[in-house]
Amino acid sequence: MGSFQLEDFAAGWIGGAASVIVGHPLDTVKTRLQAGIGYGNTLSCIRMVYRRESVFGFFKGMSFPLASIAVYNSVVFGVFSNTQRFLSQHRCGEPEASPPRTLSDLLLASMVAGVVSVGLGAPVDLIKIRLQMQTQPFRDANLGLKSRAVAPAEQPAYQGPVHCITTIVRNEGLVGLYRGASAMLLRDVPGYCLYFIPYVFLSEWITPEACTGPSPCAVWLAGGMAGAISWGTATPMDVVKSRLQADGVYLNKYKGVLDCISQSYQKEGLKVFFRGITVNAVRGFPMSAAMFLGYELSLQAIRGDHAVTSP
Question: Where are the annotated Solcar repeats, by residue (predicted)?
């Protein structure tokens, strides 16, 4: 087989769809905790969302990421796998061989995947967060006005993903779809390094030497642990990204990444940057386990292999 392989993209699409279905309810909780007001801790947030909006509140805004994150994940996994394979083969000078992967190959491939992911993922994340946050009461404290709450019964700002996109483009231009992209870049480049690298090494460590590839159980465990590590460490910049992207539903508070960090720190202290870290790590495990398992098993089916092949 040549160095560029399309099946990595197809398998990434399936893995992405599986991860969205598994992880979206906790993703809604995470977004409300980070960018919302008055939710307290994770459990009180879950209870409040359920009481106000029933179980459907947890799946608010899922249709758009289900359609788009599958494509986004397809590109991320395809870019990572093909870049890593290209680097390894270029280093060894044997285009048709499967040389061993080095840490530097994995690091560079993860960084490339992180940069590409922001180009595709920033608008997806923005739409998802805007739809998740539009039933959240916002208080305009900065302007010295009385606290005002937008009741869930009022007309929401957006009727759905398409209306959300058109409203943002009309009000802010195309650049509005990339609000928070710089924070996302600072989150995703190191985030993907701490995602793919632990997965590769953990899956190889768990797999006995006699086996040609990791078992589905090893993939599930290594993928879940990699997700928990990656999402846990990415939380501070994820908080900044969520706040920047939620900003603008009803009012604009932040001028950019540094302004968001400064305002958040001044008002809520250092602990604000670790808000949602528990739900991020807990959600990261099943989401990433489903993603890697969906990726590896579909790749195995596409290639007709009997052993799972790591990305």
Answer: 3-86, 101-205, 214-301
Q: How far is Cα of residue 302 from the mean position of the Cα atoms in its chain?
A: 25
pLDDT digits (tens, 9 = 90+) for 167-212: 989 988 888 899 889 999 999 999 999 999 999 999 989 888 777 7
Residue 169 sits in a domain whose CATH number is 1.50.40.10
Tell the residue number behind the tokens 């078992």, with chain if given: 215
Domain interval for residue 44: 2-91+101-138+159-309
